[in-house]
Amino acid sequence: MLSLPFIASTPQNIKRPKVIVPFAPRTLDEARAAGEWAARARKAGADAMEWRVDALADSVDLLDADGPAAQALEEAQLAIQDQRELPVLITVRTAAEGGQADLDDAAYAKVVSGLIRRTQLTPPLGTQPRIAVDVEVDREPAAQLCKQAGELGVPVVASHHDFDRTPDTRILLAKIRDMLLMGADAAKIAVMPKEPSDVSRLLEACASAVEVAEVPVIAISMGPLGRSTRVFGGDFGSAATFATLGDEPTAPGQIPVEKLRSVWTELY
Ligand SMILES: O=C1C[C@@](O)(C(=O)O)C[C@@H](O)[C@@H]1O
User: Staple partner for 55: which of 24, 98, 149, 237, CB 3.0–4.6 Å?
Assistant: First the structure.
């Protein structure tokens, strides 16, 4: 298994999942503030940041592998590394899964593959990878992207989102199994509950996946109804949770990182 420093992987700290705070700049100017933003995130208690590259989709061409978005990302990663290396999860969330990047499978493969290649070049020689890449398991090139990342030593957090419903438990577990078969270094599911039993079912699926998976599992129930999973998901084996840094949430139900920390400090 590849090391994935921003994901809790030992039973001792599982109750306090790692906190990943999304950074979603919409313009290159906003992206240039990444180093500063990372410093604030670290101070507020983030264990890692997620760079939502898809948020740039309206202002730059994500498909241009050597274009401004890729260069901004590289500059920003260097700036972030100066901030005592807050680990980064790089995500291109497609419109099909609630993101801003309206890409077909071929375009998704091109953008993510380009990021994997650049990511591999970014950490200074001889240091551990501190950067992982999100791969949506439902995109046709997912397996090929996981393979490429594995060959280049870039950890993959495979993901599946459903903003409309919580699929059957059988489907949730099959998604996680697909992620593991593709060689992902972590498996993440974020789904929308319609009723309380959807939330408990998601947590149950998480707990049973954790028993067999050899990599960290992240399970999130979104929206106000699913908020408990963002706070107490660790009790069911979920290895990480996403929280805001005073910015707009990147998914419904996210809570501020400071609030999350203070609840945990009181309870655990
Ligand atoms: O996969 C996830 C989880 C998430 O959707 C959430 O529900 O917090 C937020 C996204 O930014 C991230 O890529």
Answer: 24
In a domain, 159, yes or no: yes
Pocket test for ligand 1, best of 6, 93, 136, 230 (most atoms within 8 A of CB): 93
Q: CA separation (Å) from 211 to 10, 14, 95, 171, 217?
A: 13, 13, 32, 17, 10
Q: CATH number, domain at 162?
A: 3.20.20.70
In a domain, 161, yes or no: yes
Q: Is residue 7 part of a domain?
A: no
Count other Cβ atoms within 10 Å, centred on residue 101.
24
**pLDDT > 70: percent of the chain:** 87
Q: Rounded to the nearest 5 degrees, what angle is found at the Cα of 114, between the Cα atoms of 109 and 120? A: 125
Q: Annotated catalytic residue: which of 18, 161, 194, 259?
A: 161
Q: Is residue 160 in some structural domain?
A: yes
Q: Give catalytic status of residue 160 as yes or no.
A: no
